[in-house]
C-alpha cells in the first residue's frame, strides 16, 4: 500500500507520519510537495499537522487552493483513502471534504498534552483494530482545534454515524459534542485533531495510534 505525505510550506509533522508508514510499517511512502498535481500512484494521502502556509488568513484556508488539494479531492472521489491530522483536519474542512470547521480553542490557548479519546466506530478500515467504545490516549497540539458545525450539520453527522472519535472526560478545546475526529459518508476520508503518528512508537511512551494505520493495512490485505 503506497502512502503519500503532503508537504506544505509550514508542515512540521510530515516526517513523523512517514516514520510510521515507512519505517515502522514498511510501506512504500513518498513525500508529496504541495505543487504536485499527479498523485495517481498513491493509495493513501496523508495531510499532516503543522502550519500550512503559516496559517495566515485562517488555518487551512490557503492550503485548500494548492494544486495537491485539487488532486486530493479527486483522489477521495475515487474512493481512495485520505487522512487529515490536526492542521490536515483543518485543511479537509476548508476544502469541503469534511463538514464543519475548526476554530479557536475555548480558552484561546494553545494546548499541548495527551488526551483520552473514545473510539466511536470500529466498522471503518481505519478503526477496525480498536474495540467499540475503547478509550485510547493520543497527543494533541493545537490552538484552533475546537470543532464546530451548525445544528443541521451536527444532526447529520450524528445520524450518519460520522463521528469517529470523541474526547473522553475533560473536553480540552470546547469541541461541540466532544468531537475529536469525523469521517465522510463513505468512510474513506478521516479527519482528526489528535496525533496518532505521535503515539505509534513504544519508545515515545504509547502505541495507541499505530492501530489506526494497522487497521487500514489489514483492510486491504497489506502486510506490515
From TrEMBL:
The keyword Cytoplasm applies. Pathway: Purine metabolism; IMP biosynthesis via de novo pathway; 5-amino-1-(5-phospho-D-ribosyl)imidazole from N(2)-formyl-N(1)-(5-phospho-D-ribosyl)glycinamide: step 1/2. Keywords: ATP-binding, Cytoplasm, Glutamine amidotransferase, Hydrolase, Ligase, Nucleotide-binding, Purine biosynthesis. Gene3D superfamilies: 3.40.50.880. Its EC number is 6.3.5.3, 3.5.1.2. The active site is at 86 (nucleophile), 195, 197. This is Phosphoribosylformylglycinamidine synthase subunit PurQ. It comes from Funiculus sociatus GB2-A5.
Amino acid at each position: 500500500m503506497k502512502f503519500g505525505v503532503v508537504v506544505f510550506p509550514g508542515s512540521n509533522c510530515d516526517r513523523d507520519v512517514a516514520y510510521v508508514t515507512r519505517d515502522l510499517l514498511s510501506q512504500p511512502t513518498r513525500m508529496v510537495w504541495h505543487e504536485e498535481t499527479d498523485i495517481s500512484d498513491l493509495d493513501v494521502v496523508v495531510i499532516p499537522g503543522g502550519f500550512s502556509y503559516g496559517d495566515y488568513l485562517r488555518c487551512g484556508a490557503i492550503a485548500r487552493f494548492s494544486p495537491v488539494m485539487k488532486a486530493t479531492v479527486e483522489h477521495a472521489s475515487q474512493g481512495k483513502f485520505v487522512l487529515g491530522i490536526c492542521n490536515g483536519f483543518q485543511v479537509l474542512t476548508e476544502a469541503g471534504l469534511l463538514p464543519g470547521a475548526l476554530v479557536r480553542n475555548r480558552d484561546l490557548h494553545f494546548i499541548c498534552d495527551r488526551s483520552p479519546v473514545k473510539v466511536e466506530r470500529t466498522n471503518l478500515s481505519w478503526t477496525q483494530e480498536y474495540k467499540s467504545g475503547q478509550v485510547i490516549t493520543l497527543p494533541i497540539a493545537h490552538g484552533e482545534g475546537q470543532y464546530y458545525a451548525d445544528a443541521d450539520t451536527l444532526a447529520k453527522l450524528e445520524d450518519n454515524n460520522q463521528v469517529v472519535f470523541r474526547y473522553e472526560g475533560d473536553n480540552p478545546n470546547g469541541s461541540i459534542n466532544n468531537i475529536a475526529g469525523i469521517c465522510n459518508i463513505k468512510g474513506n476520508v478521516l479527519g482528526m485533531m489528535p496525533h496518532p503518528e505521535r503515539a505509534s512508537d513504544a519508545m515515545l511512551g504509547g502505541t495507541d495510534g499505530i492501530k489506526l494505520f494497522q487497521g487500514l493495512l489489514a483492510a486491504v490485505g497489506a502486510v506490515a
